[in-house]
Write a structure and sequence with these properties.
The chain is α+β, with helices and mostly antiparallel strands. The protein is built from 13 helices and eight strands. About 15% of the residues are buried.
Length: about 400
């Protein structure tokens, strides 16, 4: 047996041992950490730096393809690094090393961007816009079309539509039944037709037409018109021929208080005929109610000069209030309690009682109040006015007498 010897080469791979913190720390991780330390979101950075949040996210992801114009990438990276408190130049160099971005010369073709077509811009915007991606953490996902429609609301709307339709159909059915007219055959002749069996226009005669000569109606096609009396009876019922007049106050008007009642005097049997006689007869007995007292003399206010006057009743109610001019008079009404007077110019008003003038109410320019306007009080309080002492009073009295 031939034995063979096999040689086994054991290749040992030598490698460096890596620790738990041995990993590559990229620029985006540093920027996210600094931004998280500041408590800022991408939208906050966009609002403060006036740089799109999509560009900020592209800087953190080292993605230069998200920028529309490559010439602005250096400015965006340096501004964002300065905002985070980092070295702008180091941050831009690190961004170029990680993304493979190279700064182009200002006159080169790489520095200027060629304006793409509208379709290309829309497609690029949909691809590079991080806000349209549902995985973007700071933008909520778009809601579906029917996400806000609740099944319960749909059922309620359907029930409401069915209820409105039922009510409308019910109302339409009731309206059709109300407007429907049904004719039923009647075997007996109606009473109105029976009454019309007798022609109320019967008994016609000759009627003269408004022409140059009268023409007999019998000569016109054999037609006999009704008489005027028949037409009057047709249009004017018999109940309206003689109206019935009933005096509602006839029983009250027929009463005579001098003949009977509580106020009638006790008649003498011998003079019974005179008691029942009417008042227009000479021998009639007079009524038991008689007024024998003479009326109280009236009081009137006479103004010889302008003055304000107020007359109040006993309960305080104002009866008369005005400015009386020269020659004005006011007759005080006769009441159970005499009214009172308040005047602003006391020397301009006098009192006329039974044809005599008393006063004046008070001195000139004075205000007088609570003057009782009764004939007894005025005649006892004031004296008869002297016409020679006040020329205005003499002239006013003369004018009043001439007017009477």
């Amino acid at each position: 047996m031939i034995g063979r010897g096999f040689g086994r080469e054991q290749a040992t791979a030598e490698g460096n041992t890596r620790g738990f913190d041995d990993f590559a720390l990229r620029l985006g991780d540093l920027m996210r950490g600094e931004r998280a330390t500041m408590g800022k979101s991408l939208l906050d950075v966009q609002r403060e730096l006036k740089i799109k949040a999509a560009y900020i996210a592209a800087i953190e992801n080292a993605d230069p393809t998200a920028f529309d114009t490559p010439g602005f990438i250096a400015g965006y990276v340096r501004s964002y690094a300065r905002y985070l408190g980092m070295d702008p130049d180091w941050a831009f160099d690190t961004f170029c090393a990680e993304s493979g971005f190279a700064t182009a010369h200002g006159m080169s073709a790489e520095a200027s961007s060629v304006r793409p077509s509208r379709e290309e811009r829309l497609a690029s915007r949909e691809q590079n816009d991080i806000f349209s991606a549902p995985a973007t953490p700071f933008v909520p996902a778009r809601e579906a079309v029917f996400s806000r429609i609740e099944p319960g609301a749909v059922g309620s709307v359907l029930v409401l539509i069915a209820l409105i339709g039922g009510l409308g159909y019910g109302g339409w059915s009731v309206l059709q039944e109300v407007q429907r007219v049904t004719f039923a055959p009647v075997e007996q002749t109606p009473s109105v037709v029976t009454d019309l069996a007798v022609d109320p226009l019967a008994g016609g005669g000759a009627v003269s037409l408004a022409t140059s000569q009268s023409v007999e109606v019998d000569d016109i096609a054999g037609f006999t018109p009704p008489a005027p009396e028949a037409l009057d009876r047709l249009y004017r019922p018999e109940a309206l021929d003689t109206p019935v007049m009933v005096a509602r106050d006839a029983p009250i008007a027929s009463l005579d208080p001098s003949t009977f009642g509580a106020l009638a005097p006790d008649p003498d049997p011998a003079e019974a005929e005179l008691v029942v006689a009417t008042p227009d007869r000479p021998g009639a007995v007079p009524s038991a109610v008689q007024v024998t007292a003479d009326p109280s003399p009236g009081v009137a206010l006479v103004a010889v000069r302008p003055a304000w006057v107020r007359v109040s009743a006993a309960d305080g109610t104002v009866i008369y209030e005005a400015i009386m001019n020269a020659g004005d008079t006011y007759a005080v009404p006769l009441t159970e309690e005499p009214p009172t007077l308040r005047i602003g110019e006391s020397g301009a008003v006098y009192f006329a009682v039974s044809g005599a003038h008393y006063g004046p109410v008070g001195p000139n320019g004075a205000v007088t109040s609570n003057v009782a306007l009764s004939a007894e009080s005025l005649t006892a309080t004031y004296e008869v006015a002297d016409l020679n002492a006040d020329t205005d009073l003499a002239r006013t009295v003369a004018e009043l007498q001439a007017a009477q």
